[in-house]
Specification:
With 308 residues, this protein is mostly helical. Helix content is 74%, strand content 3%. It has a 3-stranded mixed beta sheet.
Length: 308
């Protein structure tokens, strides 16, 4: 006997957003509009600066270009709609729009995870194998690693969307969030999603935990290798690795908290999502420029050329 499948009669979802209080919505509208514009312009400025500056030709800056491009793209996926929704009491998103948003989120998020691994490997080679750095991190390999990051992101997002696209939604259709994500959708599905939730947790949460652990080990190895370096070399290496590790922690810990669990949602999920989906892309350009004199010098030089 065929298994009965509930009809999929939901064509749109209602998003409850960050808050239901009108006065707070107006304040958040101004705050997040400023954050969105700053994030977009700052990341694009880094992309332009590195692309036009011959002094920033090292592999580290090549990868930073793509990281900034991903952050600029990621902030455009969810933040504009969240900002617009703060102006209205009823916020909706179509089923197709929800799945599209979900796919792009995980495509960019998966690509960024792989890119952070690549950047950690680049720092490992630069610090632990300095004499072989130019031989190992040649231009062809760098381009291949970026392609791997994009392809990996597509594969990760495709796996996630294949699980979600066949789920039946027959009501209710209210999502207590400001964006579409895996667990809120699984919670609304009209069938048992326990096993599917475990697969999602393995594909997202467990992978984030495993990769974060690998990155942590790599930085311990790098720190141990710094004993043989001079004081100036140690200072420069710690500055570069410190910036990268800060970005890794800001990205991975919210990801692990969000996905490393069964299908359940908490009110704090919205705050955690704001941290890694909105604040992390904003902080990345600050982290990578404030402590990097080469990038700051290139930015100042580029601005002087444009002014004169």
């Amino acid at each position: 006997m065929a298994t009965f499948m509930p009809p999929n009669n939901v064509t749109e979802f209602i998003l409850l957003g960050l808050t239901q209080k009108p006065y707070l919505q107006k304040i958040l509208f101004i705050v997040f509009l400023f954050i969105f514009l700053f994030t977009l312009l700052a990341n694009l400025f880094i992309v332009i600066t590195i692309s036009l500056s011959p002094t920033l030709s090292a592999p580290m800056y090549f990868f930073l270009t793509y990281l900034s491009f991903i952050d600029a793209s990621y902030t455009c996926v969810t933040t504009p709609k969240m900002i617009i929704d703060l102006m209205y009491q009823r916020r909706t998103i179509s089923l197709g729009g929800c799945l599209t948003q979900l796919f792009v989120e995980h495509f960019l998020g998966g690509s960024e995870i792989i890119l952070l691994i690549v950047m950690a490997y680049d720092r490992y080679v630069a610090i632990c194998k300095p004499l072989h750095y130019t031989t190992i991190m040649r231009q062809g390999l760098c381009r291949l690693l970026v392609v791997v990051a994009w392809v990996g992101g597509i594969l990760h997002a495709t796996v996630q969307i294949l699980f979600m696209i066949n789920l039946p939604f027959c009501g209710p259709n209210t999502i207590d969030h400001f964006m579409c994500d895996l667990f809120p959708l699984l919670k609304l599905a009209c069938r048992d999603t326990y096993l599917l939730g475990l697969v999602v947790a393995a594909n997202s949460g467990a992978m984030c935990l495993l990769i974060f652990s690998m990155l942590l080990v790599s930085y311990i190895v790098i720190l141990c290798s710094l004993k043989s370096h001079g004081s100036e070399g140690r200072r420069k290496a710690l500055s570069t690795c410190g910036s990268h590790f800060t970005v890794v922690v800001l990205f991975f810990w919210p990801c692990i908290f969000t996905y490393m669990r069964p299908v359940v949602t908490y009110p704090v999920d919205k705050v955690v999502t704001v941290l890694f989906a909105i604040f992390t892309p904003m902080l990345n350009p600050i982290i990578y420029t404030v402590r990097n004199t080469e990038v700051k010098s290139a930015m100042k030089s580029l601005l002087r050329k444009r002014v004169t």
